[in-house]
Amino acid sequence: MSVSEVWQLLQDVKDPEIPAISITELGIVRHLEIRDGRLSVELTPTFTSCPAYHVMVAAVERRLRESGFEQLEVKTVLDPPWSSDWITDEGRAKLRAFGIAIGARHEGDIEGSLEGPIACPYCGSTNTEIKNPFGPTRCRSICFCKSCIQPFEWIKPL
Amino acid sequence: MNPQWEELLAEKLQGMVDDELILGHRDSEWTGHAPILEEDIAFANIAQDEMGHAVMWLELLGQLSGRDPDRLVFFRDAGDYRNIQMVELPKGDWAFSMVRQYLFDAWETVHLGALLKSSFQPLRQAAQKIIKEESYHRRHTEAWMRRLGLGTEESHARSQQAVNQLWPYAFQLFESGDRRDRILVEEGIFPDQMGLKENWRGQVIAFFANCGLEIPKSRPEAPIDRREHTEHLAPLLSELQKVARLDPLAAW
């Protein structure tokens, strides 16, 4: 099996808290390498205290063992730290379709990103506000759309 | 790595672990009790972050010292904890918890900023991960300090009272009590705490002034050693460690 086929396999591993998106779309798979029949996978957490991360690591191991990789090393890397900018374009489209807003890539300007505009994932209006920078999971904020009178969640820029 | 560094750095990390862990636990006591629902969620998130940061430092400590992180957290008694007293004080009222969190966040900003330049790569890598998350805490607690300090007469009085009470405790963040720390500073592994203290102090005083709050004249009479604790730590630990100690051999 080639490295690109492994990437494809990992597309099956979803974020348990946002099952619409895979771990590759989330940008947490940092490196894959096959050397002498041994597969090495590097993953990085989104937020350090994300409880879903351990679930994802276990799911990666399971998925790869099922596919015949017996010599397998899955390790966590921290450098460079994860950025919400690493969520792929496909991932962004899937998040929005799932009902979770995500802004344009912040390219380092987190403050600017927090000032909006934030588009409502339901009606597209930018007449919205952040109600709480902290939300139901570490990576999401709680927002409110004043056009369609709906609360919604937004991927926290990191 | 020079074994002398390892031992000294392990002591530093133990302090960092315990500060984050105990503060995270105290913060979590607001879960279900915060003044408004949004804040309940926010402060629970912050508590979870502090726990996450404790885990990160614990893993690094585990690699350095070979000690098992779970044993360190759940089977160490109060006398072996190395957190500062500020984080173990009971949660108090909302102003008290916010002032404490703000003082700690302001410290973490300067401390992590300095660790980004550490010559020890794992420390640098962990710091650059944590500092990104901390910026959300700092923004949040600063908003609360303004709201409380410039809010009503009562919110102002309560926050000023919390500042008066917590200020002397905060200095323990910068005390080392160990002359050997110079080795870590000279090797570029760990920042010089005195330099950080002035930076932190300047930032906090200027920010408090914008919130209508003043720094009290009181200072700690003598440096407090990290081995010394108030009577509040043991009951906290008995709750934190209760389940693990019920069945020390249980597999999780």
Key features?
heterodimer; A: 158 residues; alpha/beta; three-stranded mixed beta sheet; 9 strands; 28% strand; elongated; B: 252 residues; mainly alpha
Describe the structure.
The complex is a heterodimer of chains A (158) and B (252). Chain A is built from 5 helices and 9 strands; from the N terminus they run H-E-E-H-E-E-H-E-H-E-H-E-E-E. With 158 residues, chain A is of the alpha/beta class. A 4-stranded mixed sheet of chain A has the order 6-9-8-7. A 3-stranded mixed sheet of chain A has the order 3-4-5. In chain A, strands 1-2 form a two-stranded antiparallel ribbon. The longest helix of chain A is centred in the middle third of the chain and has 15 residues, at 52-66. The N and C termini of chain A lie far apart (34 Å). Chain B is built from 10 helices and no strands. Chain B is globular and about 55 Å long. In chain B, helix 5 (94-115) runs antiparallel to helix 6. Chain B is mainly alpha-helical.
| Rg estimate of chain B, integer Å | 18 Å
The strands making up the biggest β-sheet of chain A line up spatially as 6-9-8-7
Given helix and strand content, the structural type of chain A is alpha/beta
Share in helix of chain B: 55-70%
**Which class best fits the helix and strand makeup of chain B?**
mainly alpha
Instruction: Calculate the mean pLDDT score of chain A and round it.
Output: 94
Overall number of strands of chain A: 9
Terminal CA distance of chain A reads 34 Å
The fraction of residues assigned to DSSP E strands of chain A is 25-35%
Instruction: Pick out the low-confidence regions of chain B.
Output: none
Outline of chain A? elongated
**Which topology of chain B does CATH recognise?**
Ferritin
Second rung of CATH, namely the architecture of chain B = Up-down Bundle
What is the count of β-strands of chain B? 0
Oligomer: heterodimer
Order of helices and strands of chain B: HHHHHHHHHH
The DSSP helix count of chain A reads 5
Can you tell me the CATH class of chain B?
A: Mainly Alpha
Average pLDDT score of chain B:
93
